[in-house]
Amino acid sequence: MNNNSYTEKEIYQQPEMWKQVFEMFESNKGEYQNLATKYKDYKIILTGAGTSQFVGDTIYNYFIEKGLDIHSIATTSIVVNPLKYIKKDEKVLLVSYARSGNSPESVAAVELVNQVSKNAHHIVVTCNEQGELYKLKDVLKNMDAILLPPETNDKGFAMTSSFSSMLLASSLLFSYMVKDDSFDKFNKFYELANNTLNKAEEFTNIIDLKNIDRLVFLGDCEFYGLTKEARLKLLELTQGTYATFYDTFLGFRHGPKSILSDKTLIFFLMSSESRMRNFEQDLIEEIYDENKVNNLFVLENSSNNKNFDRVQYINLENNELNNIYIALHYIMFFQIFALRQSEKQGFTPDNPCPTGEVNRVVKKFTVYKGEF
């Protein structure tokens, strides 16, 4: 670690932030179990904007499989028309993710959902006790809040420890709803984090984007949601220098594969489940045999795969963990990758867009009133 930026410090502090979050839940287990029991039979909507939305996009598949009625819908969609997503007076729990809680959509989404349903309840997961969203808990009787350690309120432009800590905290809460004890392997997950950071630094030195103009991130289910965040980190920290794309393994064949060229780099985020891996291996082999793309990188949790001489395999050796824990290791890899590419291109990671077209917190805009 070079300690040159807030962004770097906030990436590297993540294992300790995860430990603090896990210990917070262990210390207050009864309180969080009661909260989980209260809402486990609700329709649950995970919401946020940008990176905060991708928290929900990453975890909702995992908890659907465990039995929850859970969805991921961006605040940027709800604010436009909440009736497209919530039925009148529906029994719904809105879980709002926010680093600062000051984005225009954050408070607006809560207010609009309350307009639509008299049976709405809210849980805010945030990193900022001074944020407008967190302060609503003192006003609204139908709101609970989970406040994360203040260090997770990233000072850097890009969300890093805020993203992963919100993802872990809400996953722990939902694990109480479905009695999922796989999160008890936290110590193993924590111990492997340094291995992930080391591998990220090692392979970032190997990966050369000199002749690359587009990058593709492919993943399935939880890891499909994660591809959105992985590609956004590179896009943000290099101010759009590279065209970045994401898709599922099977979905990529249906048109998006047209973007492949000798200037493409592909990251494959491998699943841990054997049936899904078969589909994923087939696409890797297909692209390999076509011999059009030479920059193929497989982010892996197991050594159980076919090996091809032009494919780089990055095995994080964490296949004993559940998919949420694997996803957290995967995203830490991509955060390091994006950070180092930003530095190589001469950007300032803490402020990669000094001209102000995009900002750490989205500028205020008009939220139009409506009758719902």
TrEMBL record:
GO terms for molecular function: carbohydrate derivative binding; isomerase activity. GO terms for biological process: carbohydrate derivative metabolic process; phosphoenolpyruvate-dependent sugar phosphotransferase system. InterPro entries: GatZ_KbaZ_carbometab, SIS_dom, SIS_dom_sf. Keywords: Isomerase. SUPFAM superfamilies: SIS domain. It holds the Pfam family SIS. GO terms for cellular component: plasma membrane. Residues 35-183 form the SIS domain. PROSITE patterns: SIS. Gene3D superfamilies: Glucose-6-phosphate isomerase like protein, domain 1. This is Tagatose-6-phosphate ketose/aldose isomerase. It comes from Spiroplasma helicoides. The gene is agaS.
